[in-house]
């Protein structure tokens, strides 16, 4: 494969399609009520199947003409070409001169892929085999700590992509976790995090996984040192090791493993490279849950379920790679997001899972989407020519309904929202008694839960007119407060159940949605230079915080005053 930088970005705003979309938007009077009334086939026409996901786009603020222009835009910005370049391993991460191959992590073992002269499918399979062997050892009790006890708690230490994916997937797949095993996640450099997560742990049955792509992240390395120190002290306290160099080395060998692309740094930390799992610079941190970064998850749910997760990812990759854009769900969802950001003035996008197990999915998507597409220059270094990126946010339904939905229903801002649900819950329960009214005795509680999903998407789309409010006998002075404008766009995603495969499909879906938007905006969705300045300044400021007066004097007046205040308040 070539390592040539990919061709220059097309300026989407100069395309014919962009002009058409601008005109269409100017003249568009969203009317979901009318559109559905005159076109009963709309729901069917705008619903698509992507592997196990049923995706209904019909409650979006688009006409067939708008959709046609969005698809034309995809052609004009050469979306298919760029997608194929990504799958082929071209260096589309231009600013870091890297291939972007998270899709190779879930490629079937019998499909070789040569990139930069290397068969990376074979590399992926070798590393996966190592992770699976380790996972089986821990699950079976063959892997033991210094006292010969099996592992009961795994603590994953990592941040950003080395935390958000694993913790989100662990929570989502909790019903698949082996009995007797628990995974905890330490990410924040706030010492509270590691202190709380280790407070009640038995060191003899605890295994730390230090997960860091670079193995240079301040938070993770600091937490790893704190954890190592805790482990040494705790094992000495219970008489499990001698307070000696050999004792400490034994503790690290049996209670610490690492995941990284920088195995030399892992060794320098004291972890035997034999106990380290690698991956490659062509996997972005936020795209890495399906690499060895998912080791904690692989241990928890086991190799079979992890393989099923990977298969789900791959199935969605294939949908994205092979389906014509007219029915290609990631392409359509990405283009709809462009429509809202660039033509309908939306600034944010809500993700609302009606599945408690997906409660960390919005947080996971925040890194995936905002670290990828929060950019102001294009991949050739020139300024972007339109707005890019949205603020992704959300909470599980129904909790969000009682918190922020008010703004989505009646606020002045347009908030496109994705509603996600599964048909079969992991914990089906019935309400034996009911409430004597709408909730019948023996009611399926999940049915009640999803009635809320359907009610919210319906209310957002169709609202409630003043006439309807008046017809309920509402006093005239309260009518306007009780009107719902409707025409609040939503996408509904339904899956049969939250299996490992479905989770893989969902993650891959949003990876590709993010990619599609990045292509339209001409940006490199795979670098993250915007996080560097703060990291550097934190290291520069640390001495001032620690009491170095010279360092304090070099700060700007506001920062210097804040540091001084902190030091005054700090006991
Ligand atoms: O600071 C942002 C970031 O660079 C993310 O992109 C990354 O996922 C995270 O830090 C953690 O990085 P690492 O896995 O190298 O510790």
UniProtKB/TrEMBL annotation:
GO terms for molecular function: isomerase activity. Its EC number is 5.3.1.9. Pfam families: PGI. Its main location: cytoplasm. InterPro entries: G6P_Isomerase, G6P_Isomerase_C, Phosphoglucose_isomerase_CS, SIS_dom_sf, SIS_PGI_1, SIS_PGI_2. It catalyses: alpha-D-glucose 6-phosphate = beta-D-fructose 6-phosphate. It is found in: Cytoplasm. The active site is at 371 (proton donor), 402, 535. Keywords: Cytoplasm, Gluconeogenesis, Glycolysis, Isomerase. Pathway: Carbohydrate biosynthesis; gluconeogenesis; Carbohydrate degradation; glycolysis; D-glyceraldehyde 3-phosphate and glycerone phosphate from D-glucose: step 2/4. It is an enzyme of class 5 (isomerase). It comes from the Bacteria. Catalyzes the reversible isomerization of glucose-6-phosphate to fructose-6-phosphate. Belongs to the GPI family. This is Glucose-6-phosphate isomerase. It comes from Promicromonospora umidemergens. The gene is pgi.
């Amino acid at each position: 494969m070539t390592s040539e930088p990919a061709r220059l970005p097309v300026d989407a705003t100069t395309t014919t399609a962009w002009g058409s979309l601008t005109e269409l938007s100017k003249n568009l009077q969203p009317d979901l009520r009318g559109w559905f009334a005159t076109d009963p086939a709309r729901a069917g026409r705008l619903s698509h199947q992507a592997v196990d996901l049923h995706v209904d786009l019909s409650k979006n603020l688009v006409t067939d003409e708008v959709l046609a222009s969005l698809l034309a835009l995809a052609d004009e910005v050469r979306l298919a070409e760029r997608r194929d370049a990504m799958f082929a391993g071209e260096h589309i991460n231009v600013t870091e001169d890297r291939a972007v191959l998270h899709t190779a992590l879930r490629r079937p073992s019998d499909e070789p892929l040569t990139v930069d002269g290397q068969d990376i499918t074979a590399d992926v399979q070798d590393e996966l085999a190592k992770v699976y062997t380790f996972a089986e050892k821990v699950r079976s009790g063959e892997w033991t700590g210094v006292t010969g006890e099996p592992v009961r708690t795994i603590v994953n230490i990592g941040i950003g992509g080395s935390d958000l994916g694993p913790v989100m997937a662990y929570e989502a797949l909790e019903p698949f976790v082996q009995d007797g095993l628990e995974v905890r996640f330490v990410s924040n450099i706030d010492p509270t995090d590691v202190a709380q997560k280790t407070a009640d742990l038995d060191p003899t049955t605890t295994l730390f996984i230090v997960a860091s792509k670079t193995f240079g992240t301040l938070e993770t390395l600091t937490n790893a040192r704190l954890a190592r120190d805790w482990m040494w002290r705790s094992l000495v306290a219970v008489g499990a090791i001698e307070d000696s160099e050999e004792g400490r080395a034994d503790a690290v060998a049996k209670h610490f493993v690492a995941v990284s692309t920088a195995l030399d740094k892992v060794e320098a930390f004291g972890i035997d490279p034999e106990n380290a799992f690698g991956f490659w610079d062509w996997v972005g941190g936020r795209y890495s849950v399906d690499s060895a970064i998912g080791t904690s998850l692989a241990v928890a749910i086991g190799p079979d379920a992890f393989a099923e997760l990977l298969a789900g990812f791959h199935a969605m990759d294939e949908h994205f790679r092979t389906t014509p854009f007219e029915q290609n769900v990631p392409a359509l969802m990405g283009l709809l997001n462009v429509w809202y950001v660039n033509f309908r003035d939306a600034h944010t996008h809500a993700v609302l899972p009606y599945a408690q197990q997906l409660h960390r999915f919005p947080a996971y998507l925040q890194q995936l989407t905002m670290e990828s597409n929060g950019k102001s220059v294009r991949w050739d270094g020139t300024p972007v020519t339109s707005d890019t990126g949205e603020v992704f946010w959300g909470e599980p339904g129904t909790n969000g309904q009682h918190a922020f939905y008010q703004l989505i229903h009646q606020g002045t801002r347009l908030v496109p929202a994705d509603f996600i649900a599964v048909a079969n819950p992991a914990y089906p329960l019935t309400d034996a008694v009911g409430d004597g009214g709408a909730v019948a005795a023996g009611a399926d509680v999940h049915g009640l839960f999803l009635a809320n999903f359907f009610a919210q998407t319906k209310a957002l789309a169709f609202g409630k007119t003043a006439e309807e409010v008046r017809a309920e006998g509402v006093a005239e002075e309260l009518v306007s407060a009780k009107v719902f404008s409707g025409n609040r766009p939503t996408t509904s995603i339904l899956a049969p159940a939250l299996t490992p495969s479905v989770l893989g499909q969902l993650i891959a879906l949003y990876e590709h949605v993010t990619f599609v938007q990045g292509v339209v905006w001409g940006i490199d969705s795979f670098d993250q230079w915007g996080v560097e300045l703060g990291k550097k300044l934190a290291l520069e400021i640390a001495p001032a915080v620690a009491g170095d007066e010279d360092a304090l004097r070099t700060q700007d007046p506001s920062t210097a005053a804040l540091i001084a205040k902190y030091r005054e308040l700090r006991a």
